[in-house]
Amino acid sequence: MIVIVSGFAGSxxxxxxxxxxxxxxxxxxxxxxxxxxxxxRTASELKADEAxxxxxxxxxxxxxxxxxxRLKDSSMDxxxxxxxxxxxxxxxxxxxxxxxxxxxxxxxxxxWLKTSLDVRAKRVAGRDKLDEKEVQAKLAERDEKTATIYxxxxxxxxxxxxxPFSLVLDTDKLNExxxxxxxxxxxxxxLKTQRFVC
Length: 198
Prior knowledge:
By secondary structure, the chain is α/β, with parallel strands linked by helices. It contains 8 helices and 5 strands. GO terms for molecular function: kinase activity.
């Protein structure tokens, strides 16, 4: 089974990916953790089992500088996505990724967590003990720049083109437990409609 969870920063995708992986007995791979590893390692040295969610790091000065570097050089993103495709094809995984819903063409349950900028900023500010308005500005900038990267490399519209998704869930008024339960319910229904070839 392959599950791919996506959504902008602060939507709860990393938390949901971890919970779904635990519930289904699958490994969980956070694309942001692998991308961060690419600062110091080559693609062949990436360690998926060490790829943790980077809570708050992308909003830091270092994370912002790395984003600017990615805008100029897409090689890191392309190396990451090649590795994520390899991991997805091996199966039995929950991926926390922005690109895989569009790039992985195999059989997968794909979730987009739709969350407003206001709600995401409030969540991140509360989690990281930061000023909400400052976080909102940083998230908006990051959303725009990340979408630009993927539009330039792959031609899809992050957060706008939702065709690849099995489930689009508006999480603005849902808590973590409600999001998890809604996704588990949708995943169970989806599994009943799938035919797997071994």
